[in-house]
Give the backbone structure.
Amino acid sequence: MVLFASACGGDGGDSGSDGGSAGGALEGRGPITFATGKDTSGNLTNQVAAWNSQHPDEKVTVSELPESADAQRQQMVQNAQNKQDSFSVLNLDVVWTAEFAANRWVVELPQDQFPSLGNAIPATVETAKYRDKLYAVPITSDGGLLYYRKDLLDKAGVQAPTTWAEMQAACQKVKALPEGKSLNCYAGQFEKYEGLTVNFSEAVNSAGGVVVGKDGKPNVDTPEALAGLETLTNGFSTGEIPKAAITYKEEEGRRAFQEGNLIFHRNWPYVYALAGKTDGSSKIAGKFAVAPLPGKDGAGVSTLGGHNYAISAFAKNKATAADFIKFMASEERQRANVEKTSQAPTWASLYDDAALQKQFPYLTPLKASIEKAQPRPTVVKYGDVTAAIQEAAYDALTNKKPPKQALTDLQTKLSSLITN
Amino acid sequence: MSASAPVADRPVNKAPKSGKQRRHDEGTGKLAAILLSPTMLVLGLVVLFPIVMALRESLFQAGGVDPETGFVNEGSTFVGLKNYADIFSGPTGERFWNAFYNTTFFTVTCVILETILGVAMALVMHKAFKGRAIVRASILVPWAIPTVVSALLWKWIFQADGAANAIIGRQILWSTEGWQSVLSVIVADTWKTAPFIGLLVLAGLQTIPADVYEAAKVDGASAWQQFVRITLPLVKPALLVAVLFRMLDTLRIFDLPFVLVGPRKESVETLSMLAYDEAFNTRYGPAAAYATILFIYVAVVAFAFVKLLGADVLGDAVQKKKNNNKGKRVRKAPAGVPEAGLASGGGA
């Protein structure tokens, strides 16, 4: 058993309070590897090629992990537990930051060495921190959007809703139209998986509640949280949310929206390009638009998604790894990535760029969504926390438990899991 | 394991001969041991070593988070049987027994259905008719598809807007909690593995000589009588091996419920899924404890099956030897060893 972090880790595990202790850790130059999930956009090769052409002695090799997030995390965890140096830079989902930092699998980063953080949307930088120390650099972000059938809303003479009540009213008006009769009002992602945690948190936050408070303590047994959860359970019981939505993940929901069965649909930005395809795969191309998520008394609060890049504690050439992360976080690379993949950038000014806005009309509502977005709980045992949240939300949505009971039980469970 | 020569049994005047005999025997034993040692070494490395490591792992727990620094304490501590005790206590206990019940229920129902269907398939494949080759090939397709792929296929079929609901004409939400999710797993598992039983039974059918049936026909036996009195008894050894293999497989079922219905769904959670869940959250000690319990369960079932039904997994030879070689030496060890080996094969 190795009881001390290896010397090259240098993550100040013993002092902890010394903010600059990580500064000296980023040493060594040479070839590095970049572990990332399957690159579905195909643009990563271009990004890495741009780096490799400028740094022939510090080439980056991409090691592509599986497409599923769980499988990616598993491989990175195994790699770290065996203290292997085969991954230098890790592409981490925002909810893994705490686990990787607490286990000292990634090194702390000196904030002064990453000036680009100042240009990122503040909410995204928060996801890269654990106990107020920086462990990663935000590269892509993600926020929920409300997709809606603009053609039907226009016909019914209503604007995009900003509150749940407005959304219900708009839905009634659309359903009064002959072509709106058979449609369902709304769906998100309610299958028992990570997406349910996202949707539940959004409902709770948009009603003014919290799942885990600013002080890191769970506080989910509140009237606000109950109002949020009841919005979803009532949606199911009145039929505004179709029964089948309990089986929806992102793709099932997207299909239902593209088939023209939904008036409103909560999903991620990636749907925009697919739903707008004019090759016949989408029946609603050109008939929809996006808005920020609605809330109880005003604009809603999205759950923050996205990916951060971190440096493995067992990597050899940490200085190169840091430079590569800076390179990927630069405005030029961020812009190139948006143009090619339509993934949400972290660089704030890109959202206001006229050329990009023309190409991606959802950038303005997306920025509003991300700026207000709430991160999911930053806890080491995130897997257990999200499982508990899913359990409670699913029980409430399937009428196994009344919402109040589900939240009370969830509070108890979370209190035992999060002992900060 | 070495058989001690029962010298006392032998008449004294034959001592020289028996001495020779004994030396010859001992030599064979030694030679056999030497020749088998590489195999045993490999088996020890790939079967025994992981089992022992898993057992050891199940007695440890990883460090928790230090509230001061926020870092996870490195290294793991020896906790004895605590991981096992935790499994049976409180909410975890309820979850465990639920998973235990699901695992057992899946095993019993799936194996019964698969056996009936598999035997029927074998009988069809065994008949001589036009297009037999195509029927044989098509029956084997499900078995040829990797389970995860077939799980995905069935997932599409069982989607809310999938083929199953289109055929039924009602919207059943197959992946939600309840009987329908259990049914979907049973259907998918049966579809996939009935051909396996069919294949093994077909092999058994083809060893039955045709003249047995001809004699039965002459005696005026009906088709049903032929099936019950001739086919089943003669195909029994092959069938029992097939059923045993399926039982060991189904006890470890993971991929179908995981992909079709999803993780942490009470209706279909199995023991393998519990072990996976713990390992996924980097709690390797409890995960190893779950795996060990499952391993023991599989071993017990396999042993009971072999003992009760006399599944002839060891081949005829040993049985015959047992019956004919009264007073001869080799007895217990060979009968026990392959059983143990088989059980660990099922669990590993």
